[in-house]
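Quick note —
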Amino acid sequence: MSDETDLIVSTPGGRLRGARLGSVDTWRGIPFAAPPTGPLRFRAPQPTADWDGVRDATAFGPAPIQRVGLGAVAGQISEDALTVNVTRRAQTAPGLKPVLVFLYGGSNIGGTSSYPLFGGLPLLAAEDIVYVTGNYRVGPFGFIDFSQYSTPAHPIDGNLGLRDQLAILQWVKRNIAAFGGDPDNVTLAGQSAGALGVTTLMATPAAAGLFHAAIAQSSPVASITGHERADARARAVAEALGADEDSAAQALRDVDPFRLLDAADQALAAEQVERPGVLSYASTIDGDLLPEHPLDVLSTGRGHSVPLLIVTTDNEGTLFARLTKTRD
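Predicted structure written out below.
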């Protein structure tokens, strides 16, 4: 293992201790939102509390709730997973550097920023940049819109995965200068479902000014859900939990997270048979955060006015062939 040298950075929320790993300096597991647990489950990202002293930032945070795989390791999966990681060259030039924010893929059912493939080392070897990754909620926690069940006692927000991605960019805007990054020179990139996040954020009004270029690598850009289908999916999941309209809000808040994951997968399994290739977990056109379908916005030139690079991942479909379970 390479030598590690403590590095302390002062951010608006408090001081962080990172580590030197070979040719890079890295800060990991930094919270960008309060833990979305208890009454904050199914709520938009909430501000973190500032901390005193120096917070250790040498280890990745856990992966969001999902099945083991796609980088998620047993025992390292949690609802308390809204964290970001920052990496830069150990020998970096003076002044603020361009920033690259990368969103992982995983069909909106899995993925984690701690996956070694997403470490960014080849990018840092090629360019003197500041590289950022972050976790966003996946599966039913991020991409099923349960807001039809919202009550004053148990409020529920929609589009939580998209809101988490937006919150990562907002964190970068506020904090990245402390790490040597230029908040006015941010490129947003993503692969597969992460690229869907990129193209969706291109059409999300609240993301205006938070990134200045974009790279979408194999974006399933059409995989956005209308309200009717989104509500039907939410009802199917609530029914799988044994809840009705009156009890759904509390049931969704109180149920064990892995039981909810099981119920959601069970409820949506038929859709995968009837509509193979459709993402059952997807952002919703809600008339608010996401007012219109991104395809409509982008095709008419009304997306954010930033350069967009469209890329295709070679042989990506082989991954899904390996993940497909053999049926009797």
